[in-house]
């Protein structure tokens, strides 16, 4: 069955889990910064400005677990400075990227939004990160969408949350799943995406629709992988290649070159991996984030980098989102996809749009 291991429907997306550990145990609870130094964090947060301890008068982080369809879900809740559970606060659910975990970019934006007065939550997807579920790294759209609903279930029961003022922010693949969740889950009063990634389209067509001529071949291979898994054989994984720095530099798309840098080096986390079960592709390849997107009638803000090679996905979804007239596609000038995750000026630019958007759409006079 070696040909399954060599099947890379997006070879530039592969991520070597052990490769991130080449620096030894240093990866366990910190990150190797751009200058090469390790920054430890007791909450294993990998982003700049991350909380290192809960201090009076500042944003707090609260690691929590809850059940979703029988699985233990690991999440972080961020509460605003001087949080008072007897008061009422708007809340925002933040969905993480494909391969990411709550301690990376999702945590950064959750913390920044909490700094604006929101109670926020970001959770590891079921079967991924620190959340439960076997086999590991199943990546089916139905599960990822249910993760979004589950975060809403939990946070709307959290002390101090005003259930009538619930927002949603999805990053990368989490953005595509957030669009789908919000189509029918009208608890979400408004929706924002950052560098939205339509996982189904890319898994089916290849990045930038570059693999249209191999769809049927890959579907047959994936079907065989599912048959092997269901028969009790080896569980096969996609996106699990070991690439050298030289190979990474030759990848055809900047998103994947920079993605390796972000996930493998500068913001690596031991729970983050690009690999996912091959059988998940049966679900991914028949799915699309824009199907029935016209059901979204809530305010919609889509943010993407003007230089992102993934921009076409946000543009396509934005055009198809005809059910809402309160919508905006904001392009961060000069930013690529991955740079919206961490570059201070681009994060500030995204926050410069998210802040007034949620302030308007989750205002107290709307509840």
Helix fraction by DSSP (H/I, runs of at least 4): 25-40%
What letter string, H or E per element, gives the SSE order? Answer: HEEEEEHEHEHEHHEHHEHEHEH
**Continuous helix count:** 11
Indicate the radius of gyration in whole angstroms: 19 Å
Name its key features.
alpha/beta, 8-stranded mixed beta sheet, disordered N terminus, single chain, 11 helices, two-stranded antiparallel ribbon, 367 residues
Can you summarize this structure?
This protein is of the alpha/beta class. Helices cover 31% and strands 19% of the residues.
Protein architecture, described:
With 367 residues, the chain is α/β, with parallel strands linked by helices. The chain has eleven helices and twelve strands. The chain has helices spanning 2-5, 105-114, 141-155, 173-184, 199-205, 215-230, 245-249, 254-266, 280-284, 311-320, 344-361, and strands at 30-32, 38-40, 60-68, 71-79, 89-95, 119-123, 161-171, 188-194, 237-238, 276-277, 300-305, 327-332. A hairpin with a 5-residue loop joins strand 1 (30-32) and strand 2 (38-40). Helix 3 crosses helix 4 (173-184). The model is unreliable at 1-38 (pLDDT under 50).
Question: What is this structure's SSE topology?
Answer:
Layout: H1 2-5, E1 30-32, E2 38-40, E3 60-68, E4 71-79, E5 89-95, H2 105-114, E6 119-123, H3 141-155, E7 161-171, H4 173-184, E8 188-194, H5 199-205, H6 215-230, E9 237-238, H7 245-249, H8 254-266, E10 276-277, H9 280-284, E11 300-305, H10 311-320, E12 327-332, H11 344-361
Parallel strand pairs: 5-6, 5-7, 7-8, 8-11, 11-12
Antiparallel strand pairs: 1-2, 3-4, 4-6, 9-10
């Amino acid at each position: 069955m070696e040909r399954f291991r060599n099947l890379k429907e997006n070879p530039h997306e592969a991520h070597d889990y052990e490769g991130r550990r080449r620096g030894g145990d240093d990866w366990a609870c910190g990150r190797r910064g751009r200058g090469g130094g390790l920054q430890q964090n007791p909450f294993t947060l990998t982003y700049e400005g991350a909380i290192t301890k809960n201090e009076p008068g500042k944003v707090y982080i609260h690691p929590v677990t809850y059940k979703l369809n029988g699985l233990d879900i690991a999440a972080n809740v961020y509460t605003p400075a001087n949080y008072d559970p007897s008061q009422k606060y708007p809340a925002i659910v933040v969905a993480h990227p494909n391969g990411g975990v709550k301690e990376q970019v999702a945590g950064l934006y959750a913390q920044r939004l909490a700094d604006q007065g929101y109670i926020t939550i970001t959770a590891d997807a079921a079967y991924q990160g620190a959340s439960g579920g076997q086999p590991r790294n199943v990546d089916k759209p139905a599960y990822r969408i249910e993760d979004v609903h589950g975060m809403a279930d939990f946070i709307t029961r959290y002390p101090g949350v005003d259930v009538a003022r619930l927002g949603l922010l999805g990053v990368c693949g989490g953005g595509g799943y957030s669009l789908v969740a919000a189509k029918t889950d009208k608890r979400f009063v408004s929706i924002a995406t950052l560098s939205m990634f339509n996982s189904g389209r890319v898994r089916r067509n290849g990045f930038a629709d570059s693999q249209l001529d191999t769809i049927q071949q890959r579907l047959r291979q994936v079907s065989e992988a599912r048959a092997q898994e269901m028969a009790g054989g080896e569980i096969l994984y996609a996106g699990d290649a070991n690439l050298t720095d030289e190979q990474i530099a030759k990848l055809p798309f900047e998103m994947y070159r920079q993605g390796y840098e972000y996930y493998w080096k500068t913001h690596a986390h031991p729970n983050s991996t690009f690999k996912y079960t091959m059988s998940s592709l049966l679900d991914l390849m028949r799915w699309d984030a824009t199907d029935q997107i016209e059901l979204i009638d809530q305010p919609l803000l889509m943010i993407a980098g003007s230089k992102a090679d993934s921009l076409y996905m946000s543009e396509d979804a934005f055009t198809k989102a005809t059910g809402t007239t309160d919508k905006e596609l904001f392009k961060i000038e000069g930013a690529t996809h991955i740079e919206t995750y961490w570059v201070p000026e681009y994060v500030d630019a995204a926050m410069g749009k998210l802040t007034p958007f949620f302030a308007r759409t989750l205002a107290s006079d709307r509840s």
